[in-house]
Amino acid sequence: MMLRLVRSLFLVFFVMLVFMNVARAQKAAEPSDDQIKDRLRFIANALRSAQPRAQAWLDGWIAGYGGSAVAMLSLANSHWDDVKLGEDSQPVPDRDFAEDMLVGGLTFALGVGGMVIDPFVPAYGPESLWPMPEGTPEERRLKLIKAEELLRECAQREKKGRGWSTHLLNLGVNFAAGLVTVLAFDRPWYDGLTTFASGEAVSLLNIFTQPRRAMRDLKNYEVGYLGKRGTYIEPKREARIYFGLTPGGFSVGLQF
Length: 256
Fold this sequence. Notes:
Layout: H1 2-29, H2 33-78, E1 83-85, E2 91-93, H3 96-117, H4 121-124, H5 137-161, H6 164-184, H7 189-209, H8 213-225, E3 240-246, E4 249-255
Antiparallel strand pairs: 1-2, 3-4
């Protein structure tokens, strides 16, 4: 009986010791309030600095896609009944231009739909973080959890926007537009190729100009504050596209 009692007491003591060590390790791993403030400051500055560029990219492409869709569909409608003189000098339908405008307008409309359905988180996501209070240590801890989640979500959205799934989706839409030009409108294959190539060029420009700052900021945060292996990534200038109104039309530019 005495031996069993000693063994039981030893087991209880051992379990308590293990739990105490685990609790001590967890407490040591938790950042202090000053560290939480520093981390919050880093993430808030990163999100706030990146948001204007992200909003400009999102608004610019939605406006560009939307405006192009409206203009091209309007041209398709106004030129659908165009005619030209045939080989026997008789008027025949001349719809090549209208068909191109119809296909292009519908493709751009799909572009607007895609950006609305899957919005660009860095452009609007930070707005959910600013109202959260941070007057007490507990409020700052909860806000840091939200800030880290938001930064990771922004980085993931940027990565997705430049990933293979986006490229394949764009290829599919542009290939379908080329097929419609050739099969539905009975046009030569090179007209379909032109439709595909022009659509793919716009898609690549959209991907190429998409901001990717959150990916860099997340990497720097993990290296600087979470002990992840790696090197700090210095800021570098990103390509950006911009639109502007001019007398009688609009302008488009690409800045490197």
